[in-house]
Each structure stands twice: as structure tokens, then as C-alpha cells.
Amino acid sequence: MEQNYDVVIIGTGVAGLYGALHLDKRLKVLIICKRDITLSNSSLAQGGVAAVTRPDYDDVRYHIEDTLIAGGHQNDLAAVTKLCEEGPKEVRHLMELGVDFDTDAEGKTHLTLEGGHSKPRILHHKDCTGREIVNKLILNVKKQENITIWEHSIVVGLEKRGDGFAIDALYDDEHHDNEHCFLAARYVMLCTGGIGRVYRYTTNSAIATGDGIALAYQMGARIKNLSFVQFHPTAFAGNVRERFLISESVRGEGAKLLNCHGQQFMTRYDPRGELAPRDVVSKGIMAEQKRVGSDKFYLDISYKDPKFIKERFPMIYAALLVEGYDLTKDPIPVYPCQHYLMGGIDVDLNSATTVDGLYACGECSHTGVHGANRLASNSLLEALVFSHAAANHINARSLTEPASYPDPAFPADRGRNRIPKGIRTEIRAIMQEADFVVPDPEKAAAGLARILEIRRMLLDGGFMMSHDYFEALSLATIACLILQDVSEKGDAAPGAR
Ligand SMILES: Cc1cc2nc3c(=O)[nH]c(=O)nc-3n(C[C@H](O)[C@H](O)[C@H](O)COP(=O)(O)OP(=O)(O)OC[C@H]3O[C@@H](n4cnc5c(N)ncnc54)[C@H](O)[C@@H]3O)c2cc1C
């Protein structure tokens, strides 16, 4: 098995796949993902990608302005400008790669509206845009001879050694059962996605345990704004951990948000009503819950033409039918839940972290584009623009920097113990209590003390390195970082909450 690579990319979401496609074809590249190649938050994206593609009625300046307003003006202006100016080019490139965005009756790309956008500018493939993009990117990546893909292989160790990196991955295929595999790389791109699984309820897929952020933190990379967590207002209120999202675009197409009495209420809290940015709508729901004394909320689009609903939202319609609800007839029970992380591994405009040679792209990174609250459909765009930037930077560096590979060996496992049951459940319970939509400073302080104990126990307990152990340690690290940030910022994150 090959041991030395020019670039190792950890993650096969939009950031990892799109970044890989832009690396120089002379570079030897390995992409690793811990489950199936398609299991990622990227594949779950419904609404679409925001970009100014019709200069006849939209303008990059409006996209910048909308992004800054949603982010509570806590965004990095240079990063937002790069996102909005370069976004349209990346979206056109996606089309060249075969991504099929919906078109209107005139054959023009159909653009939809989502909360916080002043113009309809969201390109989409029905209501399963992420899956369409990921599938087309995979097809293209698989054609590249310089790229190797490992599925079901979790990276559990990453160290800077000399000019390069040593990587410890548990490799799994028909001949190997989670065997340690040591790799050397000149450059590493962390594209490991979000942290949703640190909360009890999330829209995120099972891979979202914050591994990349925990690995970068361990290496001393700067981590920023981890308390900037987005809670989506309209996840389906089922009793399962992974909550199915009812996309923003359902409100964009006119769905009404109702309280337990069947009354619209959002304009009580914001003149933009249902189309206010997500944090505002989530907070509106929590305020309305206090006012009416009930946590029952509904999304209702049943007044629209059933044919339109079924054609526009086929995936959501089908998923809700399985739960016993008909989107064309019934108000759908919804409630906020964890959805997205705006903070992450701090990077510059080239997606370079504070550790030389280490790059971070997509949801695990903090580019500063989202400020304190992400504007809908800006995160796929961020993954495209900033993974391309990372690839460009690596390409340029690789031409002048010598190809040296460190010894990648890691010490043998420190122990044989298996982690006690219930660790993840306890972390999630603490986070749900301490940091849901509006953080509770007292519970956050008490929760932080307990999570620090859990993390110490995981580090010192002589545990065998396994998929389970590593993810539990990542969750404990992320929970600590979030609660520390909550304690420092308190409520001083206006817009985020
Ligand atoms: C339900 C839902 C709907 C959304 N809708 C939209 C939308 O309409 N528009 C929009 O712009 N955004 C949307 N988002 C957000 C957006 O999808 C994500 O922010 C974005 O896709 C993240 O992409 P990524 O490449 O950074 O990470 P992901 O797509 O999450 O990929 C992470 C990858 O990292 C791998 N990985 C993680 N840890 C390890 C490890 N230790 N070892 C090996 N591999 C590892 C995983 O296996 C996976 O391949 C949505 C998110 C959700 C959850």
C-alpha cells in the first residue's frame, strides 16, 4: 500500500471533492472518508447554492450586503467579497462538470428565494441539490488517475513533522479490519464537515462529530468562534436524533409558520416574518413558545397547488409521507434544532490554517464569511470557493517546495480498555441544556466543568484507539471548545443567537 502522498484530503463532501479536482494532476492525492463516500452533510443539502448568476436583476453587491446583514456584521469583509465575487464562476464550473440545476419554462436556470436573500438567487436541483452535486463530483474525481479514494477509513491521528505531516488512519476493507495505517503527506486539507452530533438533535449526518477541528486543535491550530452555532428553525419535529430538514426554500415558496393555535406569529418578532434569517426565526419560535406556553409549531404550504409542491419538493414530500404527513394537505410539525457551525479552524483567504501546510475548507473551517449567522445556501458556495483557493495555493507551493516525507509511524495503542457506555449521550444532554438557540450561562459553566472531566478521563483512561473512542474524544473536545467560547462571549454574540 502506498505510504507517501503529496496531498491527503480528509473528507469527501463538496469541499474535499471539489478541492481534489483543482489540484495539479501531477500531484499524488489521497482522499479519505470515514463512511461511504456519499455520507456527508453535503449529500443532505436540499435548498441549493446561492450565487449571482443574473446580473440583469441581481448584483454581487446585494449578495455581499445580505450576507453581512445575516451575519450580524461580524463577518470578514474580504472573505465575503471573495465568496460573492468568485461564487458565480464556481457555479458555472459545476454545470460544466455535469451538475444539473433546474430550469424554468424559458430554459433559464430557475432561481429560488430563501430567508435573508433580497433577490431570488438560489440555484437548485429540485430539493436534493447536495446529492446531485456530490454525485457529479464523485464521477469526475473517479476519472482522475492521480487521485486515490479510501472509504470507511477514519483518520485518528495527525501530526506536523518536519516539513510534512504524519497521519494515522484506521483502514477498513475486505482484507483489513480497522487496521492502523500510517501515511506521510506534504500538505493536508481538512474537509471534515460539521459538529452536529455534539447536540441531542441535529439535521447533520452521522459523520458530523467535529473530528477535523479536534485534530487541528490538538496540533495547536487557531480555532475561532466555536460558539457560533446555527439552529435551523424548521426541522421536522420527530423523536429521532437526526432530524429531517424542511428546507428554507419551502418558506421561500410561501409556507407559513404557525403556532399551536394555527396563527402566524413571526411578524410579531421581525418585519421580515417567515423570511427573516434563520437565527431570528429560531429565536422567534422560542419567544412565541414562552408567550403561548406550547412548543407545538407547524409549517403550512397546503394552500399551494399540490402539483407544484410535489414537483418542487419531491424528496421532502416523500420523506414526510413516510412520517404520516402530506405536505400538500397537512401542517407539518417543526421545531428548531442544531444545523450548522459558523466557527471552526481559522483560515486565511487561501484556506491556510495557522499550521504551515495544513488547510481547512468547508464547514470545519472558519473563513469569516458567515459572521455570527450563515445566510441560507452560502455554505455550499463557501466549500466551492475556498477549496478551490486551497488547491491553487497548494499547486503553487508544490512547484517550489521540495518533496520530503516524514517518518509516519505512530506509537502503539496506549491501552486496551473500551470506553464506557453513555459518554456521548451525556455530552449531548449537557449541550442541549446549556446551548440551545439561546445559551444558558449557568448551565454552560456547569456543563463545561463536567465535559472537561469527561475529556480528561478519555485521554487518561488507557482506551484502545477505535472509531468509537476517537469520535467520543472529538465530541468532548468540541463541546469544551463551544462552552468555553460561550463562557467568554456570553450573550455578546448578537445575531448568532
Ligand atoms: C440537512 C442539511 C441541509 C443543508 N442544506 C444546505 C443547502 O441547501 N445549501 C447550502 O449551502 N448548505 C446546506 N447545508 C450545509 C452544507 O450542506 C454543509 O455545510 C456542507 O455541505 C459541508 O460540506 P463539507 O465538505 O465541509 O463537509 P461534509 O459534506 O459534511 O463532508 C465531511 C466529510 O468528512 C469526512 N470525515 C469527517 N471526519 C473524518 C475522519 N476523522 N476521517 C476521515 N473522514 C472524515 C466524512 O466522512 C465526510 O466525507 C445543509 C446541511 C444539512 C445538514
UniProtKB/TrEMBL annotation:
Any idea where this protein resides? Cytoplasm
The cross-references to SUPFAM superfamilies, in alphabetical order and at most eight, read:
FAD/NAD(P)-binding domain (SSF51905), Succinate dehydrogenase/fumarate reductase flavoprotein, catalytic domain (SSF56425)
Instruction: Tell me which Pfam families the record gives.
Output: FAD_binding_2 (PF00890)
Q: What is this protein called?
A: L-aspartate oxidase
One GO term describing the cellular component? cytoplasm
Cofactor(s) annotated in UniProt: FAD
Q: Molecular function (GO) terms listed?
A: L-aspartate oxidase activity; steroid dehydrogenase activity, acting on the CH-CH group of donors
The alphabetical list of record keywords is: FAD, Flavoprotein, Oxidoreductase, Pyridine nucleotide biosynthesis
Give the source species.
Zongyangia hominis
Q: What is its EC number?
A: 1.4.3.16
Keyword Oxidoreductase listed? The answer is yes
Catalytic reactions on record: L-aspartate + O2 = iminosuccinate + H2O2
Q: Which GO terms describe its biological process?
A: 'de novo' NAD+ biosynthetic process from L-aspartate
The keyword Oxidoreductase is assigned to this record: yes
Lineage, top-rank taxon, reads Bacteria
InterPro entries per the record? Answer: FAD-dep_OxRdtase_2_FAD-bd, FAD/NAD-bd_sf, NadB, Succ_DH/fumarate_Rdtase_cat_sf
Q: Where is the FAD-dependent oxidoreductase 2 FAD-binding domain?
A: 6-380
Family, according to the entry, reads as follows:
Belongs to the FAD-dependent oxidoreductase 2 family. NadB subfamily.
Role played: Catalyzes the oxidation of L-aspartate to iminoaspartate.
The pathway entry for this protein reads as: Cofactor biosynthesis; NAD(+) biosynthesis; iminoaspartate from L-aspartate (oxidase route): step 1/1
